[in-house]
């Protein structure tokens, strides 16, 4: 069996294409205990997520967590599941399709847009192989994590690298590490907040909640906390808010270790005691709505805020497949793909096809000894 994977049916001189691979974290295939267990087993086995030695972590993961947590998590997933399935999967499908259409309108070259999940399906490796078979010789990987973290962005790079380590013919590769202060991204966030204000009025506080990570990761050099703060600062400046009108917090902590603070759930429980009865919550680190936004914020923390004495908590949806989000991602793609032939505004398909035919003819003549 060959050590490296090749491309079956490849013909020299065929017209090449470029590809954009959007990557999100992932979702269970079904809101069942079995489906969630399979998803969590892959997610929590990633050493980027839990940096414990395997000998110490494996008994806890397989002996305790995967026995108890899947059933509880499945209940939470069922609260947001739709007839079509996972909201994250649906959102990624819609976003990918709209970005493909927008890119096709801007650049005539053959540029394929696909999406994959770091955990679950569609898997990164499988989508990369499909793109290679479709003729993609240049690959731009865009993890949909605006703020870089070793737990997310770096893990995507690990998966991409692991797949490419099996290939015989490697593509040109570019990778977007973060876009936490990209102007179009900040503008898209601001416009989503302003649109919500126009419909519902302005709350006493805008809580900007990011996914948490263990505080020890920050101490070891992970820039995630600083990039979250930078995003919030740019957003506050764009919205013209005072410092006390926009609050930054971190959600989704697990275990007993100290995570990035302040914690979103504790902050929302404290605000009513400070006289704040109306809050709006935005989660800028989530490109597409998922369990952490639709259930944790819009349902669980909404109830916690009301129980503490609050009157109104409104979750401002993620950017999802909105026109502003598509425009922001399109800008990122065009800037990071600049210089590749398929990204040229004046790309000539007829000329490229002629060059491919000529190259194929040369290869045939060399093969025949002519």
Q: Which consecutive residue ranges, at least 5 long each, have pLDDT under 50?
A: none
CATH top level of the largest domain is Alpha Beta
The total number of structural domains is 2
Q: Any idea what the radius of gyration is?
A: 23 Å
N-to-C SSE string, H for helix and E for strand: EHHHEHEHEHEHHEHEHEHH
Give me some keywords for this one:
370 residues, alpha/beta, Rossmann fold, 2 domains, 4-stranded parallel beta sheet, 12 helices, 8 strands, 48% helix, 15% strand
Structural account:
48% of the residues lie in helices and 15% in strands. The chain folds into two domains: 17-179 and 323-350, 3-Layer(aba) Sandwich (Rossmann fold), CATH 3.40.50; 183-316, 3-Layer(aba) Sandwich (Rossmann fold), CATH 3.40.50. The protein has 370 residues and is α/β, with parallel strands linked by helices. The model has no long low-confidence stretch (mean pLDDT 93). Helix 9 (264-270) packs parallel to helix 10 (291-307). The chain contains twelve helices and eight strands.
Summarize the structure.
It is built from twelve helices and eight strands. It is an alpha/beta fold. The strands form two sheets. The chain has a four-stranded parallel sheet, with helices on both faces. It has a four-stranded parallel sheet with strand order 6-5-7-8, with helices on both faces.
């Amino acid at each position: 069996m060959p050590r490296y994977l090749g491309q079956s049916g490849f013909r020299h001189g065929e017209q090449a294409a470029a590809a954009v691979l959007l990557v999100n974290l992932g979702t269970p295939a079904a809101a069942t205990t079995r489906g969630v267990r399979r998803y969590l087993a892959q997610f929590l086995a990633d050493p980027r997520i839990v940096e414990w030695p395997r000998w110490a972590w494996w008994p806890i993961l397989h002996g305790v967590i995967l026995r108890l947590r899947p059933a509880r998590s499945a209940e939470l997933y069922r609260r947001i599941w739709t007839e079509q399935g996972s909201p994250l999967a649906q959102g990624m499908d819609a976003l990918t399709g709209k970005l493909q259409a927008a890119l096709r309108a801007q650049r005539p070259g053959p540029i394929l847009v696909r999406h994959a999940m770091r955990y679950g399906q569609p898997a990164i490796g499988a989508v990369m192989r499909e793109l290679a078979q479709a003729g993609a010789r240049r690959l731009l990987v865009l993890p949909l994590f605006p703020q870089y973290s070793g737990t997310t962005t770096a893990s995507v790079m690990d998966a991409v690298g692991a797949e490419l380590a099996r290939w015989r013919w490697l593509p040109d590769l570019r990778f977007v590490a973060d876009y936490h202060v990209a102007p179009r991204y900040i503008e898209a966030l601001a416009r989503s907040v302003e649109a919500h204000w126009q419909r519902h009025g302005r709350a006493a506080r805008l809580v900007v909640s990011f996914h948490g990570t263990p505080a020890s990761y920050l101490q070891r050099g992970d820039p995630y906390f600083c990039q979250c703060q930078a995003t919030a600062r740019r957003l506050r400046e764009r919205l013209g808010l005072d410092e006390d009108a926009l609050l930054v917090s971190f959600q989704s902590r697990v275990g007993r270790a100290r995570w990035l603070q302040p914690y979103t759930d504790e902050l929302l429980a404290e605000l009513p005691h400070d006289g704040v009865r109306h809050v709006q919550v935005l989660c800028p680190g989530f490109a597409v709505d998922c369990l952490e936004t639709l259930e944790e914020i819009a349902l669980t923390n909404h109830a916690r805020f009301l129980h503490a004495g609050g009157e109104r908590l409104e979750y401002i949806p993620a950017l999802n497949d909105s026109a502003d989000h598509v425009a922001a991602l399109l800008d990122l793609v065009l800037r990071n793909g600049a210089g590749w032939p398929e990204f040229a505004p004046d790309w000539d398909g007829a000329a490229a096809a002629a060059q491919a035919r000529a190259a194929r003819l040369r290869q045939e003549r060399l093969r025949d000894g002519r």
